């Protein structure tokens, strides 16, 4: 609308940075301009998403939206959900990881969706992930801490062999928040990449 937008960031594109090809640079050409009096000069992403991770990014179009949503992110009033394919079996159906990152308290919650046998890994699991805090690479680090690194994550997989060449199997697929002006509760979703389930189906047949 005129205050806030939700856009789908493709995998491999950073939200911002010195590169020419960023989500932030693409927004003015791809979002309808707002007619609100406090319009920003350019639409501004309200949060970050790792370059390898596809999914939803919220964008402010007005000063009011930028300030209000910025406060709500700080106060943890915006709920983000991710889905990922991870190596192995999680210790329980639902759980919480409390593992400091860079000496800062860090918390993530997880919910198991499905586990299948895998010839390559023993098992693969599809999980829903909910970051409570917002540290860099938090979900990737926390899944690796459980011994279940995300498929495709070479950086945090340690000695565990992970699939390469198909990208990081992590997607920001849902965000819930109250509209910064109307206060209407909103939940926005995007489809998880088909390759997640296709890869699990293929591995389960092989396993």
Question: How would you sum up this structure in a few lines?
Answer:
By secondary structure, the chain is α+β, with helices and mostly antiparallel strands. The chain has helices spanning 23-30, 63-74, 138-145, 194-206; strands at 4-9, 39-45, 55-62, 79-87, 94-98, 107-118, 122-131, 170-178, 185-189.
Account of the protein in words:
This protein is α+β, with helices and mostly antiparallel strands. It has a domain at 79-169: 2-Layer Sandwich (Pseudouridine synthase). The chain contains 4 helices and 9 strands, in the order βαββαββββαββα. Strand 6 and strand 7 (122-131) form a beta hairpin. The radius of gyration is 18 Å and the shape is elongated.
Determine the strand fraction and express it as a percent band: 25-35%
Terminal CA distance: 47 Å
Task: Report the top-level CATH class of the domain at 79-169.
Answer: Alpha Beta
Q: What is the share of helical residues?
A: 10-25%
Judging from the principal axes of the Cα atoms, what is the shape? elongated
The CATH homologous superfamily name of the domain at 79-169 equals Pseudouridine synthase
Major sheet: arrangement of strands: 5-6-7-4-8-9
Quantity of strands, as a count: 9
SS-derived structural category: alpha+beta
Put simply, the count of helices is 4
H/E element order: EHEEHEEEEHEEH
C-alpha Rg, in Å?
18 Å
Q: What is the quaternary state of this protein?
A: single chain
Features:
single chain, 207 residues, Pseudouridine synthase, three-stranded antiparallel β-sheet, 4 helices, 20% helix, elongated
């Amino acid at each position: 609308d005129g205050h806030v937008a939700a856009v789908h960031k493709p995998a491999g594109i950073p939200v911002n940075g010195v590169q020419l090809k960023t989500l932030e640079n693409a927004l003015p050409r791809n979002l309808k301009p707002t007619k609100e009096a406090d319009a920003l000069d350019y639409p501004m992403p309200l949060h970050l998403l790792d370059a390898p991770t596809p999914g939803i990014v919220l964008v402010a179009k007005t000063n009011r939206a930028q300030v209000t949503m910025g406060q709500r992110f700080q106060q943890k009033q915006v709920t983000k959900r991710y889905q990922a394919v991870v190596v192995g079996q999680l210790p329980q159906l639902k759980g919480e990881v409390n593992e400091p990152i860079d000496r800062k308290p860090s918390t993530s919650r997880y919910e198991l969706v499905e586990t299948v046998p895998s010839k390559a890994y023993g098992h693969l699991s599809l999980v829903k992930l909910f970051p409570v805090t917002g540290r860099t690479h938090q979900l990737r680090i926390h899944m690796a801490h459980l011994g279940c690194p995300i498929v495709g994550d070479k950086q945090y997989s340690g000695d565990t062999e992970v699939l390469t060449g198909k990208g990081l199997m992590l997607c920001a697929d849902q965000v819930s928040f109250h509209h910064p002006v109307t206060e209407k509760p909103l939940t926005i979703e995007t489809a998880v990449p088909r390759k997640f389930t296709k890869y699990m189906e293929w591995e389960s047949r092989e396993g």
